[in-house]
Specification:
The complex is a heterodimer of chains A (111) and B (113).
Chain A: E1 4-7, E2 10-13, E3 19-25, E4 31-38, E5 42-51, E6 54-57, E7 64-66, E8 76-78, E9 87-94, E10 100-102, E11 106-110
Parallel strand pairs in A: 2-11
Antiparallel strand pairs in A: 1-3, 3-8, 4-5, 4-9, 5-6, 7-8, 9-10, 9-11
Chain B: E1 4-7, E2 10-14, E3 20-25, E4 33-38, E5 45-50, E6 56-59, E7 62-67, E8 72-77, E9 86-92, E10 102-103, E11 107-112
The chains are: A mainly beta (111), B mainly beta (113).
C-alpha cells in the first residue's frame, strides 16, 4: 500500500540535544511538507520541498533544518536552537493538483 | 492575506444534529478549499474539497457550501454520529503547483448520544 511513514511515533529529547524525525513516502509525490501542531494553534508550516535538493522555509522554520536528497525522504531535524520543541509533528506529501496525504505523526517531548 | 480564519473553536451537538463549521479567507488567488478530519493521535485525512466554480459539494453526509463573493466556505455534517467526533480543519491554497496549504486553527467537534 502506498503512503507516508513517520518514525518514531514518540520521541523524547533532552535539553540541548538535536533529534531527527523521519518521513518516507512511496507515493511518488514531488512535494513534501512538515507541519507542527500545538493545541489550539492548528497546523503551522515548518519547511517544504517541491523537488529533490530544494526546500523552502515556512512560517516557523527557526530552530529546524531539513534535507531532501531523495524524492522519497524528507527528514526534519529539531535543533537545540528550538526552545520549545514539544509538539506533534506531521509530515505530508502532495501530487500536483491533489490534496495532501499525511503521515501518522511524531509526538516529540522534551525531558 | 494568507490567513484562513475558522470558527467555532469547539462545538458540541446531539447525535443526529447538523454541526456547521465556518471558514473565511482573504487571498482571492486561492482556488482549492479542502477539509480535513483528524482523530486524536492520528494525522489529518482529506474529507472533502471544493473549487470555486461550484457553490456546493456533497459527499455522503458531508457538504461544503462555498460563497465566493463573501470569501467564505463552510462544512455541514448531516445526521451527525458519535464517530464523527474529531477535529476538523479547513484549508486553502492555489491549486496549480505545490504551494503549501494554509490551514485554519481547527474545530473540535463532539457528538453526544
Amino acid at each position: 500500500d502506498g503512503g507516508i511513514t513517520q518514525s518514531p511515533k514518540y520521541l523524547f529529547r533532552k535539553e540541548g540535544q538535536n533529534v531527527t524525525l523521519s518521513c518516507e513516502q512511496n507515493l511518488n509525490h514531488d512535494a513534501m511538507y512538515w507541519y507542527r501542531q500545538d493545541p489550539g494553534q492548528g497546523l503551522r508550516l515548518i519547511y517544504y520541498s517541491q523537488i529533490v535538493n530544494d526546500f523552502q522555509k515556512g512560517d516557523i522554520a527557526e530552530g529546524y533544518s531539513v534535507s531532501r536528497e531523495k524524492k522519497e525522504s524528507f527528514p526534519l531535524t529539531v535543533t537545540s536552537a528550538q526552545k520549545n520543541p514539544t509538539a506533534f509533528y506531521l509530515c505530508a506529501s502532495k501530487y500536483q493538483g491533489r490534496g495532501y496525504t499525511f503521515g501518522s505523526g511524531t509526538r516529540l517531548t522534551v525531558v | 492575506q494568507q490567513q484562513v480564519k475558522q470558527s467555532p473553536q469547539s462545538l458540541i451537538v446531539q447525535k443526529g444534529g447538523i454541526p456547521i463549521i465556518n471558514c473565511a479567507y482573504e487571498n482571492t488567488a486561492f482556488d482549492y478549499f479542502p477539509w480535513y478530519q483528524q482523530f486524536p493521535g492520528k494525522g489529518p485525512a482529506l474529507l472533502i474539497a471544493i473549487r470555486p466554480d461550484v457553490s456546493e459539494k456533497k459527499e455522503g453526509r458531508f457538504t461544503i457550501s462555498f460563497n465566493k463573493s463573501a470569501k467564505q466556505f463552510s462544512l455541514h455534517i448531516m445526521d451527525s454520529q458519535p464517530g464523527d467526533s474529531a477535529t476538523y480543519f479547513c484549508a486553502a491554497s492555489i491549486e496549480g503547483g505545490n504551494t503549501p496549504l494554509v490551514f485554519g486553527k481547527g474545530t473540535r467537534l463532539s457528538v453526544i448520544a
